[in-house]
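Before surveying the methods themselves, we first show a specimen of the format, giving the amino acid sequence and backbone structure tokens:

:::
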Amino acid sequence: MKKIIILLLLPLAITAQKNYPALLKQFMTGQHDYFRFNGNVLVAKGGNIIYQQSLGYADYNSKRKLNDSSVFELASVSKQFTAMGIMILKERKQLTYDDNVKRFFPDFPYENITIRNLLTHTSGLPEYEDQFEKYWDHKKIAFNKDVLEMLKQRKDTLLFKPGSKWQYSNTGYAVLAAIIEKTWGTDYEKFLTRFIFQPLGMTHTFIYNSRRTTGKIPANYALGFVYSDSLKRYMLPDSLPKLDYVYYLDGIVGDGCVNSTTGDLLKWDRALYTNKLVSKATLDEMLSPLVLMSPRDSANFYGFGVMVQPKSPRGKIISHTGGWPGYSTLVVRRTDIDETIIALSNNETLSGQIRAGIESILADEDILMPYEHKEIKIDPALLDRYVGKYTAFLTLEFIKKDNKLWRRRNGTDIELKPESETKFFYGDGTDRQIEFEVDNSGKVTRAWFINTGQKGEMKILN
């Protein structure tokens, strides 16, 4: 045990090593110990688990610990299950992707919006979250029927002509869930359970959006917590007025509210290599790069309920993230090499940088392992040599204020605390550092930005 602790305290660079389970454990344990990560992580190759770990609490109040079977709210990772529900109905000839939404809801207030538009986020529908924030009684629970009614009553202008652009839409997926219910004549939960969860043996997966209405919490549930800067502790979002939408939007499904475990999500991953739920042709379309997500980015597309990157150094990537107060979630599938990353956090600490760190380990790339950063005292005069602007993928400005070094970007200052005369760590608790190289005269010759173990050189602008 002592050897493990010592290892985690050292900034060890890893290059071209193959003990993935040990490296992943070291990386994620460090993220938990030093940077507050709380959640479950699973990595598989060829469907075989090579790393699985539970880190932290399922309930901060009772100190109940997470385990491999802890159930998390998936947030927007849920959308791929809604998409699959529509695909199943399409194969059963209950609908087509080109069907107009008015076929199911004749009083729907918009013309020429198809199921395909909803699946691919090209409908242009207004955001229901904004509408309910402004026009809904926040003491009442809203359901999908209320989303449809709100659209009908408000008749807000579409964001763009259907099919002309891509813009992420929770509204579209709430409407898709309503279409599933209208078409099959049963509720969304019963449909997904019968046609997806039960056939795949996903015994810990269900729709859960009734904690605020019924007070019932499932067994082994990972409650989502948010950090209060003022109170310096984790709290349930229910108690924070600015997050009251966790109550009044509690009844809406389709865009979220699937709850699952890392193990069940691996079963889902394996099913997407088979025709167990739908035919290969239908599955291929779901996982295809159907719509470019941004005209400025030629690499990232959207399929049905998933993001698709057709080409990368390690092949095709199918992924989706999710976020909701208390939760951040991620499923990444590198289908050409059959590699799967599943990460679920119940304190919002999962980030793209943690994903990048895991991917770097799996790709045998250099990464600095997490360690404890301790502030030391240095001569404030040394800070003058670091003041200036630097750039890599973004521009950072370092300023001296109150005899301390600060990072300034977009009007926001974050203190940089010295751990040596040339290396500083961010004072906001994130796993980010700045490292400088200086010559004998004290002039900066090189600078590095380190983000969750990823080290990149910055160009000195002045």
The radius of gyration is 24 Å.
